[in-house]
Amino acid sequence: MKLRLKVWRQKSANDKGYFEDHTLEANEHMSFLEMMDVMNEELIQQKKEPVAFEHDCREGICGACSLVINGQPHGPMQGTTTCQLHMRHFNDGDTIHIEPYRANAFPVIKDLVVDRSSFDRIIQAGGYISVSTGQAEDGNAIPINRNDSSLAFDAATCIGCAACVAACPNASAMLFTSAKVSHLALLPQGKVEASRRALKMVNQMDEEGFGRCSNITACEAECPKGISIDNIARMNREYLSASLVGEEK
Amino acid sequence: MSLNSNIPPGPMSDKWTDYKSKMPLVSPDNKRRLEVIVVGTGLAGASAAASLGEMGYNVKCFTFHDSPRRAHSIAAQGGINAAKNYKNDGDSVYRLFYDTVKGGDYRSREANVHRLAEVSNDIIDQCVAQGVPFAREYSGMLDNRSFGGVQVERTFYARGQTGQQLLIGAYQALSRQISLGTVTMYNRHEMLELVVVDGKARGIIARNLTTGKLERFAAHCVVLGTGGYGNVFYLSTNAMNCNVTAGWRVVKKGAMMANPCYTQIHPTCIPQSGEYQSKLTLMSESLRNDGRVWVPAKLEDAKAIQEGRKMGKDIPEEDRDYYLERRYPAFGNLVPRDVASRAAKVECDKGHGVVATGLGVYLDFESAFERYGKSKAHSMNLHNPSTEKIRELGVAEIEEKYGNLFEMYEKITGENPYKTPMKIYPAVHYTMGGLWVDYNLETNIPGLFALGECNFSDHGANRLGASALMQGLADGYFVVPYTIGPFLSKEIRTPKFSTDLPEFAQAENAVKERLQNFLDNNGNQSVESFHRRLGKIMWEHCGMARNAEGLKKAIGLIRELREEFHKDVFVPGTMDEFNPELEKAARVADFFELGELMCVDALNRKESCGGHFREESRTEEGEAKRDDENFAYAAAWEWPDVKNDPVLHKEHLKFEAIELKTRSYK
Amino acid sequence: MGWFSRFLTSSIGQKLIMSLTGLFLILFLMVHLAGNLQLLADDGGHSFNVYADFMAHNGLIQFVSKGNFFFIVLHAVLGISLWLRNRAARGGQKYAVTNVRAVNTHPGFAKNMAVLGVIVFVFILIHLYQFWLQMKLDNVALVSYEGGAELSDLYEKVKIAFLNPMFVIFYVVSMAVIAFHLWHGFQSAFQSLGLNHKKYTPIIQFLGKVYAILVPLGFAIIPIIFYLKNS
Known about the structure:
- The structure holds 3 protein chains of 3 kinds.
- Chain A is an alpha+beta fold.
- In chain A, 35% of the residues lie in helices and 13% in strands.
- In chain A, helix 2 packs antiparallel against helix 7 (194-207), helix 5 (174-185) crosses helix 9 (230-244) and helix 7 (194-207) crosses helix 9.
- The longest helix of chain C is centred in the first third of the chain and has 31 residues, at 59-89.
């Protein structure tokens, strides 16, 4: 299949970016990133600089890959990361726009690579249970309701790829933040510091310069792990009760 | 140089307890003065950095990823073992110990494995406390499943994403320490050199991958948790950026690489589809709990399938060869990975393979659909359900258990595995070999520790499923926080090191020169193309089956290719910028040297054991034949300079608690 | 910053304000519609004018209406400031291609709430000028029914206004815009409050859609019927 690619090139955060055109012969069994590999191999053959893009596990779990393909983070297939997107979902002759995630909180490092360290800082603000190694009691000491455990898992399945921010017309990080707040708040071990966690994580999220949620739900639609906005509702609840009911100032 | 494994005295089951009671401690006040570098943030690295930070050490932690959460531990699917005996099926620390030593084909160090089995239970407790959402029963209690090579159910799991959940747990613990200031995190920093001062590991040179600048970091000791080197094969289930560079740079500084030829080839991966392919995808071993492996018994059927004239479902039951059940009736489809992989290769070599390339076998869930469907129908009080209804119910049950894996399979292959049987083939997955370490997980360079997959200690010649996660977390949470004590307790008077020392300047210059050479080369071929060619040589001659002739040939080919690489590789861009091609070039250069050493090791080990199968050494039935008389040792290779030959040091393995005997899964 | 101002300026605090003011306005719409439907009574405007007079002179209603104005302004001002802030959060470089998908809401309405809101706000201003302000300024003729007290004949005012087909179209279109705004806004208000439940959320979503259609439709038929009846 013949493809026309319009790929975003940008030398660094401070440089101006532009679209570069490539035409490419691809094969429908390739993954999207393998198609990009082929493009880069051609560029190297021409002694040009290949396009920088982030990727690692190529099996949809590390969260490194991060492209916006024709206006959609991770491309047209729902519940799929870019690395698992295969070219069989495109047609011969297609024009494909490949852009980096665009958000103030994610400055471009080079071409399609952006800096997502703001997500780490949100987790560092409170996305954990404060238990040190060696303090744990037996794993079966506290029975956990199977449904709660399963809901916690659904939230914990977040891969931190930031497609939610890229997809959100407001560039909001509510789905990411709420997935962690929910995951831990749903478990008895995490309930102990749930209020504090919600307050600190939301404050950090606000400080990072993300936009604000208006429940558009594009985040859920584009999340490669299908994380539900139910988590956002849960975080709202946690935050409201922590702010208005909790005694911690 | 003689190797001292520093195994504590006493009976096997008391060693670790006695060790912990008697080891020298570092007081809290002194911990604050000591600095530790941890390289890598996978299960081993992140858990070690977090635990050491909690204890009060000053930790500097490094990852080449943009975030510690992306380490490849995240991709582990199936589960983590522990000897909890929650299933009341006779499990115990001894059994886990025994299974691991036996599974490793008696090529691991008993004392280390016993310690691993002892701390396994603490890991589960720790992870539950951190909020890892392990699978649970309706009672709210933890659920278990079974993995290859064992006859109990001791594997804890979180759907098909156990590695992810455990890593997120460790990442959260690490994040907490970062926020408390005990750990300073350096993302997008790749370790490119070890700095040795007066014979002890005292720092690293890392390249800031965003700016391209080389940076110096000093500490009282260095801990590596940098993973395995499976990517030497180019195509493997490892992530694209997994590499041996940190591990290999310390070998260049005098550390020893032990048993590099022990490679685990995982039996259930999605077969390769084309030349452009960049990596192989694993389908969890847990699938072998319910899937049955088969090939067509008749050659003409196999040929018809390869040519697309027939489908798997066209082959009648009596013409199917469930070869694992036939050859290994006691363990059936759940034989250890090395055995299952070799059996698949045997069938495909005979021409019974089922994909176009002939390299693939079926993993079939049809009988599981039926079994689960019947049981579900029974529990729903359905009398005389139709075959279709049973299948429908069974499919739903399997979907509940393995839904995400089936979905992944369909995404990659475009085939619906609920309708047609999965096709699988073995692929490189894990490397049991690694840096030689003693009981303290300390390499032969004092102050340099190696944890998790990057050391060699616990899995012998073959790793059992769900044991990698166990080892990574055991080393990081429960072993190194103690075993680092003997070294650091002697360093309490050592002041912090300055990075202005000549050793640091020297190391930095060496890195600079190495990288500059790639950039100045101006050759014609991409790094990737060399890596691919190296991988082919390795897979062909040092893969699932090895022989002396092939290995010798491979050594020659690798040397030639290495030379060509240094002459003709093209690396665009400059040093002082974000430059992924330059990163790759440095990694592939190290893979060349490691690859050669793997072949040297494989050639030296004239026996078959675990993942290492020498065609010259097999029983009449074609099974692997060990040679305990001559090879019951760990081969630790010293190879600081490639211009000379590698030097072999042997650590003889003593088996006190377990009798050495032929491994049988029949 | 005190905890309360920090809360009010936090992303979730502001969600709460948008949600509560929104819900109040939703409630107001229903009450307003109930009153306005009396315009359709076949009594020459008697019941409607009595109702209008009551609304204009009852102390409690007056108090609530002050609140109503305040909430409209707060909802609008905060909405616009959030919109500006959110646009800025995307950064200087926008996507060359946009393709928004959504779950259980309309992506076009959801992402354009501010645009829809501004249109609604403009409509409200014109609407207030046309009727409420004229009544306040005593620009409405008086009428008396069966010898009772004199009332402002707002009914007549409405009748005259809707003789103009341009006004009819303007009102109908504005109601459509309100419908779009509500389509997303109704359920969104509940989500913002954290009122989310596997069993009840689908019901709320359904009610929201019903409300978003029926209430604006109820308003829209008034000018249409007036136009058809009187022109």
